[in-house]
Amino acid sequence: MIPKIVGKSTRVVETEGFSIDEFAGNVGSNDDTMSLAVVKVSKPYSEPWLTLHYDEWIAVIRGQMDCMVFDEKTQKEVKALSAVAGDTIYIERGQRFKPVFPVADTEYIPVCIPAFKPERCIREDEGLDDKEEEERVKNQLQELHEKTDNTAAETTTTTANTTGDDCFLYHICEKSLWEAAIDSDVAYFPPTFTEDGFVHACSVPNQLIKIANHYYTSSKGDWVCLKLPTAETLKNKCGIVTIFEEPKSVGSTDPLFILSYDVNTLFIFWYPLVIEVATLI
């Protein structure tokens, strides 16, 4: 085997003061194995809160990058680290954090395994000053990735169990309805299943309380959180299709846009598929 050129630099994000050029990945090289890009920040800038469903290494070439995390004890965001030129940051899959660039002329190289995809990077809209610009960026990324044919690459990564579908899913429901389904040995359906046409779920568990407070405060009883198998397992073992997309209404209640992606799971919800059940207090 000889060296070969596998990709071409492609501008995937461009906003005022912020740009991303992908050299390898689903857009840059039509490969889902990994992605490599160059990110340039020309003025102080902050991204929204992110939750990654891939491992990411960030090599800071110039400038500074701060990583903010949420402290559960103080209920405030705190600075986890501050990286400067020459530093490499590792962000583990499932980590929720907010990248902040306090100085102009910052440049870094992110490497993602598996490759970046919009549905693998949950972007929260809450608190953003320019939501229209954020929506434009999301739409641009989605359009670029929809144009890419990754059938062969997806087959490879699915076999290796490294796709974005390997995150657990979470569904909250009334405890009485769940226990009634268990006691009767029947399939569980949420009350809005007929109206919505699917079962809502979420892949970011630390957002469940916000979701519950948005949709279900009228309920007086106890609720439980159901931890489901990964979307990949549901598909391969049970033939159940999971669709990652923007939040949808639950019955007549408008969607809560705190995440870029909700999970709409199209299946009959049969209780043996649940991994864990936890009571929400």
From TrEMBL:
TM ranges: none
Highest taxon in the source lineage: Eukaryota
One of the Pfam families matching this protein, by short name: DUF952
Protein name: DUF952 domain-containing protein
Species whose genome carries this gene: Fragilariopsis cylindrus CCMP1102
